[in-house]
Design goal:
Blueprint lengths: L1 H40 L1 E8 L5 E14 L5 E3 L3 E6 L5 E8 L2 E10 L7 E6 L8 E9 L2 E8 L2 E6 L11
Parallel strand pairs: 1-8
Antiparallel strand pairs: 1-5, 2-3, 2-4, 2-6, 6-7, 8-9, 9-10
């Protein structure tokens, strides 16, 4: 009789735990859906700035955006997209706006007659932190290029006298 009671108690405890886990998963999923809906209402400001004494041969910003929320609450991401592409950019700044659902970013920049692809790669992968702004800055001279990338006004990448690289491709 004691064995039956112990088994019944264990089964009841397991069922309670499964119910709690399912409830927690549902709560997480609904939180993610709410977060996604809020992201849809926001915009991301993007600034591409060249203060160097060179012309940018190419400047490309790439991103992946959330396209939905899975049953487990994970974000469903779309493919890589080229969000901003510029050629022949002299000194100055260019601004654009993106939907707030973009959460992963990469950048590639090449200097005309100078350092080849001083930066080319993914710089932001945090799908859980909404992005409000992205700034990609280049400076220096054509053989001594500096690159600074900021997300939400915080530096996520900084390099002076960058080495040459190959172009990153999505």
């Amino acid at each position: 009789m004691k064995l039956r009671k112990a088994i019944a108690f264990l089964l009841a405890t397991m069922m309670l735990c499964v119910g709690i886990a399912a409830s927690a998963e549902n709560d997480f999923c609904s939180e993610q859906v709410t977060k996604y809906e809020e992201m849809k209402e926001r915009k991301i400001s993007v600034c591409i700035r060249n203060s160097g004494s060179f012309t940018l041969r190419a400047s490309r910003l790439y991103g992946r955006q959330i396209q939905g929320v899975g049953e487990d609450g994970s974000f469903i991401l779309g493919p890589w997209e080229c969000l901003d592409s510029r050629h022949g950019m002299d000194s100055g700044s260019e601004y654009t706006e993106l939907p707030g659902t973009y959460v992963i970013f990469a950048y590639s920049v090449d200097v005309r007659g100078g350092t080849h692809w001083p930066f080319s790669g993914v710089f932001w992968r945090n799908v859980n932190e909404p992005v409000e702004s992205v700034t990609c800055k280049t400076g220096g001279d054509y053989r001594n290029v500096s690159v600074d990338i900021l997300v939400n006004q915080k530096t996520v990448y900084s390099c002076e006298n960058c080495d040459p690289h190959s172009e990153w491709k999505p």
